Queue: 2 jobs
Job 1
Amino acid sequence: MFSSLIKRIILKRSSVEANFSRLTVDIVKSGQSRRGLGIILSVEFPEAHILSQQMDRELTGKQVTVYTLQHYTKLQNLGFINMYLSDFERLCSRTVETVISRGNVIQVKFSDAMNLILAPEYGGIILFHKKEHPISEKFHLKLGFTDQTALTVTLTGMGIIHALADSELSHSYVYQRDFSQTASPMDENFTLDSFSKALLGKNVNLKTMLVGKDAVVTGLGNSTFQDVTYRAGIHPKRKASELTEAQRRKLYDAIRLVIEQRLQLGGKIQFIDFYGRRGGYEPAMGSGMAGKICKVCGAEVVKLNLSGGQCCICPGCQK
Ligand SMILES: [Zn+2]
């Protein structure tokens, strides 16, 4: 019984990992990002951090009375929602102890060693509802609490909604990827020195170094990658080992600047926080900017295929 449970979760994890890389390409190819559904609403480190703080403030101490899941079949087949919906029953009667985040992943910790893992990294909205506010039917998961407030989670692109016991966290792909030893962009140990050392001698492209499970820093997605490489004036197809000391510094400074500004301004402009407010940070470069004119050099922004995704760059500024 126990071994079959482990097997089930492991299978789910490997399919989630495969789906994340495969679907990145599908979503970009289908142009969903330009229609405002997928990547545009992506939740990366700053947005996950903002949400987790707001959720911690509102939800800590609340007890779950009921859960509702809907429109889940496709997400379930992809491994983005638990294979067995009854897993969510384990959240009922449990109390929220705290909400934290690391990288792009939000962990709602409940009493009795239960967790809700949320990672709407390619698009999603997590909202708080006071009892007097009507709830739209557009959600995938709703948790109702004893005081008649509620939480809803809606995925608009790839993402994770998993109810997991503590003992199952080790089998969660996104949890293992982000709640790891890898430095977080605002950690004290994410220094120019440590960043430079991590890049030195690595004959792999920058995207692999900055985004995904082999990255040297957690919580950066394709959106941040485009923004920081543009600000640093570095072509995204460059290999990490080719960068000069000055370029490594520019890249490090751009990462810190972008993350800090997004935290200060309530996330990216497309982001919607726990209270339904939009963020105020406008990326200097990002998806959907192809064909626009670079404000720095006047060249036309172009789109490149890169590591299973698309990336907008200024050919004038990024070398
Ligand atoms: Zn330019």
Job 2
Amino acid sequence: MAGFANRFVKVADTYYIIGMEEKTIQIKYAEYPSVEALPPAEREVLEKAIEATVTAYSPYSHFCVGAAVLLDNGEIVTGSNQENVAYPSGLCAERTAMFAASARYPKVPMRKIAIVGKNQQGELCAATPCGACRQVMSEYQDVAGQNLQIILYSEGGIVLVFDGIDSLLPLRFSF
Ligand SMILES: [Zn+2]
């Protein structure tokens, strides 16, 4: 028991290892009250993502997602979710857009990506990126050598803007 006491400290019924520190990761982002309130560049990319929702192929989920990527050369490449009867064969809107952008404009850095969902009632809604899409964003950010800004349409019509993938994928796997 003496050895146990040497290595642990009890605080409010919880034992902590001596030397261990609890840490917090903070996520910083900007919140805009509406699409119209965004700066022009961010607004343009998000509006392209909204347009892209109509190209979704989602006969199974009936949930449409649009994404748009702004490249360093000024081009905006869009994508939408593409589903398949063999479910894992489908692909998210974000990766559809990023892979299309990289295939069409190889090695041109990606600067911004906007993502928006549309529900069965045809209303815009939040569609936060899945883990796999965040990992792909992470790699393209590293390839670009500059932060990839992420613009997310959110509930109630507000828009969240993140300065880089570290905010959405802390402690990310990188190279
Ligand atoms: Zn995804």
